[in-house]
């Protein structure tokens, strides 16, 4: 097993990401966020964009899972859609490259199969982001190093759960022989622990730790419910 992947076992990977329209966007900010996560005990970082990956590698000693979120007009695939993004991440030094491993049509006529083959030829460890059990099994058959449940609920045909997809993790752990990483809508430490109890190799948490605007919204929503209830009394 890849030594970098081994470092993630039974631990917390913190996803340090901010898109261009978000207030914390910027490689220097995400590098500091990653440093804070490392000080808090994270075993790895998941980062978006070659610039962020390179900046984080400079300030932490943690394995960095790199991806590139990129929109293409001719495809729904958003996470590391093409070889162009893969090359950017390899150049930036990503220890593991994560990519959308659904079987949806990719941009420029590229395919999941061709990308994984090319990455394996370069010895690049691969994390397959999936939304269903069928996708997880297919990704394993292509030779990826691990699968992550990142996309469950984010494809039109996967379960639209409000919370974590425990069932997918449970099934994947039983049916796959490669590590299964739990990711997606994990908001509390108890939910993270439950994923490990189900057999997840590691847990990825992003929004609940590194997106203060979304954390704030949750508090504000709860307080609004309280105010409305009080006004009715």
UniProtKB/TrEMBL annotation:
For the protein in the UniProt heading, the enzyme class is isomerase
Q: Which UniProt keywords apply?
A: Carbohydrate metabolism, Isomerase
Q: What pathway is it annotated to?
A: Amino-sugar metabolism; N-acetylneuraminate degradation; D-fructose 6-phosphate from N-acetylneuraminate: step 3/5
Q: What is its EC number?
A: 5.1.3.9
Q: Which reaction does it catalyse?
A: an N-acyl-D-glucosamine 6-phosphate = an N-acyl-D-mannosamine 6-phosphate
Pfam name, any one: NanE
Please give the family membership noted in the entry. Belongs to the NanE family.
Q: List the PANTHER family.
A: N-ACETYLMANNOSAMINE-6-PHOSPHATE 2-EPIMERASE-RELATED
User: Tell me, what does this protein do in biology?
Assistant: Converts N-acetylmannosamine-6-phosphate (ManNAc-6-P) to N-acetylglucosamine-6-phosphate (GlcNAc-6-P).
Which HAMAP family is this protein grouped with? ManNAc6P_epimer
Put simply, this protein is called Putative N-acetylmannosamine-6-phosphate 2-epimerase
**Organism, per UniProt?**
Paenibacillus cisolokensis
